[in-house]
Design brief:
Layout: E1 6-9, H1 13-27, E2 31-34, E3 53-57, H2 63-74, E4 87-93, H3 99-106, E5 110-113, H4 118-129, H5 137-146, H6 161-171, H7 176-183, H8 187-201, H9 206-216, H10 218-227
Parallel strand pairs: 1-2, 1-3, 3-4, 4-5
Length: 228
């Protein structure tokens, strides 16, 4: 079975060609630099299995304009999650620009900032391809607290102690690998626990699960973040 493709989308052709070549070597996946998604969106019966990863270049764009560009490119219907057919990441993001909350709420899986090394970029891309959310723990914690408007009664009882620990770590921005290392269990075991957690709390994404944790396990989350 073919491995799904990676698309680097932006007008900086030389830079994106270099990034494409580097990521192809690092990930073992076909990586293509394009200026738009017209070619990618054409039906292809021989396309790699699974959702492609689309990395958008945000160089020179603020949060508002970058989000608007993504919506106009990817969203055929207003109001629905705009990245349902692709895994999406943003690179050359300005630090402190505030795009993360809007991006995550729409389904962006990874944020890669101006000035970061190619090695860190590749590590984050691999994490996104592995189903992780690539965003800093601090930013994720800030987003969760900002979305925690209405206090609710604790609902820890619907989760086991181990599930509560895992969800708390996830809400703090930890990847599956970090959760496994922290709890001395395998990544496979973490994935199994997350599957059951998502079913119990009716979450369909890591972000939804993190928001549920913020509203129902906020004390545990703050204690974990403080101790990190």
């Amino acid at each position: 079975m073919k491995k799904r493709s990676i698309y680097i989308v932006g007008n900086n052709t030389l830079q994106n060609e270099l990034i494409s070549s580097f990521l192809e070597k690092e990930t073992g996946r076909e990586c293509i630099a394009v200026e738009d998604l017209a070619e990618m969106n054409k039906p292809d019966p021989n396309a790699p299995a699974g959702k492609p990863l689309v990395l958008f270049d945000c160089m020179g764009k603020d949060a508002v304009h970058c989000t608007q560009d993504l919506k106009s490119t990817l969203s055929p219907h207003a109001g629905e999650e705009i990245f349902s057919n692709q895994l999406v990441g943003l690179f050359n993001v300005k630090k402190g620009g505030g795009i993360e909350q809007a991006g995550i709420s729409q389904g962006v899986k990874g944020f890669f900032y101006e000035g970061e090394s190619l090695e860190l970029f590749a590590k984050g891309v691999k994490a996104v391809l592995d189903g992780e959310l690539w965003v800093s723990r601090k930013i994720m914690a800030d987003i969760i607290v900002q979305n925690c408007h209405t206090p609710r009664s604790p609902q820890q009882k619907i989760l086991s102690q181990r599930e509560t620990e895992i969800l708390t770590l996830l809400a703090g921005g930890a990847t599956n690998e970090e959760i496994a290392d922290r709890l001395c269990i395998s990544k496979h075991t973490v994935k199994g626990h997350l599957y059951h957690i998502f079913k119990k709390i009716h979450a369909t994404s890591r972000f939804q699960a993190a928001l549920w944790a913020a509203k129902n396990l906020l004390l545990l989350l703050l204690l974990w973040v403080a101790g990190s």
